[in-house]
Amino acid sequence: MKTTAILKSISLVAVLGAALAAPVLAQPGPGMWGGMGGMGMQNGGPGAGRMGPGMGDRVGATLMTTEERTAMMIKMRAVKTYDECKLVQDEQHKAMEARAKEKGITLPAPRQNRCDMMKARGLIS
After folding, report:
1. CA dist., res. 105 & res. 6, Å (int)
2. Predicted confidence pLDDT, tens digits, the chain (125 residues)
3. Origin, by domain of life (predicted)?
4. What's the Rg (C-alpha) of the chain?
5. Which pLDDT value is given to residue 27?
6. What pLDDT is recorded for position 14?
7. What's the CA angle centered on 32, arms 29 and 35, to 5 degrees?
8. How far is CA 89 from CA 36, 79, 92, 93, 95, in A?
9. In the chain, which ranges are E strands?
10. Which own/partner contact pairs does 73-77 have at CB distance under 8 Å and 24+ positions apart?
11. How far is CA 63 from CA 9, 81, 119, in A?
12. Which helix (H) or strand (E) holds 20?
């Protein structure tokens, strides 16, 4: 009887320990292509000098300062209509194309249209 209680206690501790450890182990790391703070293009890590998977639509963002990215997010959140969104987006893309040209970088076409996404989510009309 005492052995059964001890085995139940040990099993309970093991299950609770595993349940608490699982979320910690499931946290994503910086990734091969340099997530936030990882060894990415800006740090001369594995992605330096070339674009990794999914980096095509973020090249423009790497050409902006933190303040410029924040200002762009604020502008995009402030738009009310699809046409206004497209205008802001097109102006930004042209500015980033010019900046990329100055640095000798070819800016790829965006893989997704943020205005379409915002409209689909009901954020703009």
Report:
1. 66
2. 688 888 888 888 888 777 777 666 665 555 544 444 444 444 444 444 444 334 445 677 889 999 999 999 999 999 999 999 999 999 999 999 999 999 998 888 888 889 999 999 999 99
3. Bacteria
4. 23
5. 59
6. 82
7. 55
8. 24, 10, 5, 6, 10
9. none
10. 76/114, 76/118
11. 57, 27, 26
12. helix 2-25
Q: How far apart are CA 30 and CA 55, in angstroms?
A: 14
Measured on CA atoms in the order 49, 54, 56, 61, is the torsion positive or negative? negative
What does the buried/exposed string (b/e) look like for 60-74 if buried means 16 or more CB atoms within 10 Å of the residue's CB? beebbeeeeeeebee
Does the model's pTM come out above 0.85?
no
As a 3-state breakdown, the chain gives helix, strand, coil percent values, each rounded to 5, of: 60, 0, 40
Please give the Cα distance from 93 to 102 (Å, whole number): 14
Rounded to whole angstroms, how far apart are CA atoms 111 and 36?
A: 21
| Residue 50 amino acid letter | R
Residue with tokens 């980033």: 96
